[in-house]
Design brief:
Layout lengths: L1 H23 L6 H8 L2 E9 L2 E2 L8 E4 L4 E5 L9 E8 L6 E5 L4 E7 L3 E8 L12 E8 L2
Antiparallel strand pairs: 1-2, 1-3, 1-9, 3-4, 4-5, 5-6, 6-7, 7-8, 8-9
């Protein structure tokens, strides 16, 4: 009888420990959660280049990301956003987010994401192609899900 009581007390202590440790854990979104939000088609809401509105330079641009690390762009803009490519996720300095490193080496810093809005920043330093794609600087893209 005493042995059963000891086992019951030990089991209760283990359950209480598990409950208390679960409630104090911080829940961080995983890469899967991030990819679930990212993996959709995003249309340009507005774009800034060094704090100046350049949205008109991206008419009809849509970027579609997939969970398997690929993207396609409708109405791409030179090397700034090519027609297609791949990306990998990297740890971000912003809690609960990830940065994207494209296959061309461009770093895309995601600053906000939800199921309906995406904001990212990138620095474009090279100048190949036409007028829009040749403008180097710091870009901020505000995208929306259709």
């Amino acid at each position: 009888m005493k042995k059963n009581q000891i086992l019951l007390v030990l089991a209760a202590i283990v359950v209480l420990f598990q409950i208390s440790s679960c409630s104090s854990e911080k829940v961080d979104p995983t890469k899967d959660n991030f990819l679930n939000n990212l993996s959709r088609s995003w249309t340009v809401n507005n774009v800034q280049l060094d704090s100046k509105d350049v949205t008109n330079a991206f008419p009809g641009m849509v970027i579609s990301f997939t969970k398997d690390g690929k993207f396609t762009t409708t109405n791409p803009v030179g090397n700034l956003w090519p027609a297609s490519g791949t990306f990998t996720l990297q740890a971000s300095t912003i809690q609960n987010l990830f940065d994207l490193t494209r296959n061309d080496g461009a770093l895309v810093t995601v600053t906000q994401i939800s199921s309906s809005a995406l904001q990212f920043k990138m620095t474009f330093a090279t100048a190949p192609g036409g007028r829009v794609s040749s403008v180097a600087g710091n870009y901020t893209f505000n995208m929306k899900a259709p």
